[in-house]
Each structure stands twice: as structure tokens, then as C-alpha cells.
Amino acid sequence: MVSLAEAELSFDAPPGFSALNAEEMRLIYQTSQPPKYAVGNEARTTTIGYDLAQAAIRVDQLKEAKPAIESQLERTGTGFVWKQREIITLQGQPWISLECTFHGSDGEGIDIEFHDILLMTARHGRLLRISFNSTQEEFPNVEKALRKTIQSIRFNRK
User: Fold this and answer.
1) In whole angstroms, what is the distance from residue 36 CA to residue 146 CA?
2) In this prediction, what percent of the chain has a pLDDT beyond 70?
3) Which of 7, 38, 76, 117 is the most exposed place for a label (fewest CB within 10 A)?
4) How many CB atoms lie within 10 A of CB 66?
């Protein structure tokens, strides 16, 4: 089980996933706003990044924020293709759910095709992000486990 105390969030990571260290985070998340935390498989070819960002947002703003987030994502890599983009409900809470593929770097200069599922919602007035990132080659082998993890997302009640 993975948890993020400040968001009172927990989810069940796939078997064999473990926390990434600082160097792994730097190599894998080459973005201006990387997640604060991540877990991944042993090879680090599939990861789940998560954090409660400083960006202020309310649940009623998700629908209007979605197009701007989509536009920002489209600039993340070449060969960008949307697989899905909608508002879903998990545990009674609305989430922006975005799924895409794109070409990017593995952190060591090797071009790789990625498959991402990104979930975002408002929590305590801030943006809660959970990103499921896999190489396109590996995605068919891990998709079922990642979707099971998504269904395990829950807010811990006090």
C-alpha cells in the first residue's frame, strides 16, 4: 500500500513496486513539475508518480481546468496521441482522467515511446496528481495491474 498523508490518500501499487530514489526520480521525470514521490517496478520501466501540488484548485474547477492541462500535456513529447480524456468518478469524487502515448527520452538520451495515464483531482484546495507511466512496449503487460491500482485509490477517512 502506498500513501500520501497530506492528501489522506492511499492506493495499492502492483506487486514488486518500490520507492524511487532521488537519482531515479531525476532521470525518469524530466519535467519542470515532477511528482514529489514515485514507486516503480524493478526495471523502472513502469512508474506511478504522485503528489499534492501547490496549485490551487477546487473540485468545481476541474472541468474548466481540463483543456489547459490537455494543452500542456500535448507539448510533453513528439508523436503525441490521445487515447482517452474525460472526467471520471473514483470513490465518489470527480477526477480528470487523461491517457496518451508520446515519444520521449529515457533520461539517458534514448528515444522511447511512452504510455501515460494521468489522474487529477482537488484535495484540500490543491491539485492532487497521480501519473501512471510505462514504456509502450511494456504497457500491455502491466495495464491490468495499473488499472487495478487505479480502482484501489481511496481517501482515508479520519
Assistant:
1) 20
2) 96
3) 76
4) 17
Contact 48, 149 (CB under 8 A): yes
Q: Which amino acid is at 40?
A: G
C-alpha dist (Å) from residue 131 to 157, 158: 23, 25
Averaged pLDDT of the chain: 92
User: CB within 8 A of 84, min separation 6: which ones?
Assistant: 97, 98, 99
pLDDT tens-digit readout, 65-124: 999 999 988 887 678 899 999 999 998 999 999 999 988 766 666 788 999 999 999 999
Q: Which three cell numbers stand for residue 77?
A: 513529447
Q: Which DSSP string corresponds to the chain?
A: -EEEGGGTEEE-PPTT-EE--HHHHHHH--SSS--SEEEE-TTSSEEEEEEEEEEE--GGGHHHHHHHHHHHHHTSSEEEEEEEEEEEEETTEEEEEEEEEEEEE-SSS-EEEEEEEEEEEEETTEEEEEEEEEETTTHHHHHHHHHHHHHH-EEPP-
